[in-house]
User: Fold these one by one.
Assistant:
Number 1:
Amino acid sequence: MRLEQCLPLLGLLLCAVGTTAQQGKWEFLVEISGTTVTITCPLEDEDIQWELSGKTQDTRERKFIIKDHDSTPANLSCSWGSEKRQLYLNAKVCATCEELDALTVAGIITADLLITLGVLILVYYFSKGRKGRASSAGDSRPRGQKMQRPPPVPNPDYEPIRKGQREVYAGLAPRAI
């Protein structure tokens, strides 16, 4: 393989490895279900101390659960010893929302596309049969080549000059100075 062909592949590989190495080590995991928000601390140790908006919480696990969250922004931190990670939580929650997984969304989109395709095919086949039929709406005008054009409407402003009417236009001749 030539060098020009390998460089894009190498760049893509470096990007994938770089994002995989960074992901998960320093990031919080936030899960939202209804009005419950679950946050997982990126620190791997147990006996973690949580602070929510400056108040120390009594839980010591890696996962911190906020029940009946009211969608107000909050500063959250988890710490173990001298290590401390902070998170600004601005999670929008609602009690009456329904959760949809990816398979349901894909099914809805596929069904919509199939229904649209079906309607398109029906319109095509029903309009295809009407090409050769005459109109049944009582239209008695002939169509196509049999139709004759009416004579043009005479316009008195552009009538041709007749022999006996030259004096009307005689005043338009150029005058000698």
Number 2:
Amino acid sequence: MSLIPRRSNVFDPFSLDVWDPFEGWPFNSNFRSLSDQIRSGFPAETSSFVQARVDWKETPNSHVFKADVPGLKKEELKVEVEDGRVLQISGQRNRELEEKTDTWHRVERSSGSFLRRFRLPEDAKVDQMKAAMEDGVLTVTVPKEAAKKPDVKSIQISG
């Protein structure tokens, strides 16, 4: 058993996720972890729903991101491009309103905000991105530019 938590066994040079070895340790109530500081704009209580699981696959024609966001409506999600090359997927699930007459026996579903960022490669056509939602899965498709063939110029050999 490893003491180092791993988010994935695949190195992703485009991901902006930062592993914080002290995340979740009870140092100080005012201490914000490195990953919380990076998630600027979102409060430290962005906890149990923070990391919506996202798959990223590359096809010959596009980059496809699939995020599991069960129970969320498309109005509760945002898909944005930051600085021309950073795909940002965020959303928020609110708690159910509690009625004074209700008795809760168990609360396991998480609530709060999440934010995921991915640095897109140079061949991404960010102006042609599309997003769709179906059965609790958000799919973001980013088309790719066609691979440029190198110009080959023959040089005459003298002599």
